[in-house]
# Entry
Amino acid sequence: MRSTRAIDISTGLFVLLGFAAILFMVTQITNRGFSLRSDSYRLLAAFENIGGLKPGAPVSMAGVTIGRVEDIQYDMKLYKAIVTMRISDKYRAIPNDSDASIYTAGLLGGQYIGLTPGGSDVPYKDGEQVIMANDAIVLENLISKYLFNSAATKSGESAAAAAPAAQE
Amino acid sequence: MNAILRDFVQSFLAFLERVGLLVRFALRLAVILPSALMRPRPIIEQVYNTGAMSLVIIMTCGLFIGMVLGMQGYDLLTRFGSEEYLGTATAVSLLRELGPVVTALLFAGRAGTALAAELGLMRATDQIAAMEIMAVDPMRRVVLPRFLGGVIAMPLLVSIFIVVGLFGAQLVGVELFGVDSGSFWSQMRSSVELGDIREGLVKGVVFGVACSLIAVYEGYNAMPTAEGVGRATTRTVVISAVVTLILDYILTALML
# Structure
């Protein structure tokens, strides 16, 4: 039989470990908590339409993930979506004329932001807004554009065909 | 034919009797529960016995379950080109199912058998009868602290199992197969909800009650022979496993 002190210490350790595990689950696995890593800086971008972009989506440059979408807000003055990106400190030197676009990963994949570098020598500073933001391509808009176009040409043709008949 | 039918009825009645005895046992425990909480010392000792002593096996198994999940999940998800969802897949399956169920099965094997064997041996060596003679209630003194120790330890063991499993999955998925560490964690974060964690913890508590209750019941009511103690430990593992899996189905259906 071990001494009661040893039992107390290891019981305390076990219980602490258990609660630490619960705390880890609640803060690190869900989006309710805080992130452990904070060595990063923010970039803003204003989009007309963000499509299905969600907080947590990757921000990439040439396909390499360099950060995450931290927050998405709607700006009532600009009538635009303001996306806050958190970029890793490793990628400090992004030219300040780079532009941001929203792309879709794969056919059904999640959406992400791709940054295309510009030619400026001056890098973006923390909290600066990206100069040009290209919107997400929304599939429904494309389809409806195509449908309406074809409907318009069809009705145009039928109207043209009906016109001579009416004249007679 | 008649004899077979009578056998069947007899065994069914015996089963009903066991269930009834178990419920009575549980009610007796519930009645003396408040008075036992006044004396935390034996409970702490049992948290040590059932929880801290099971830590090594729980962590080892959690690590390997997580590593297997990472490997299988990666193989399956690359077929759809969506290996960035590996974190989500492992986290949800660990939180909701594998964490509580595997921990309960390991708990039955490691702590449940220890409890049943200890109590059974106390019964076989007349220690329980001696307590009764000394006007010490063995239920209060011996059984309840062991039961409560198991109930307290189980959800903590489940949480530790899940977290270790996640690191196992990360080890295989990120370090070995090269899934992006950022998307592994951020996809997990954006799709796992507090409800998933709650489901895991509720299951942990329920399985803890079930497995501890079965273990102390079987041990306390073991036949006072060497064979009886052996049978009590075997029954503990078998009944705990079956009851855990049945309860798991019911709880999942309730919480989905």
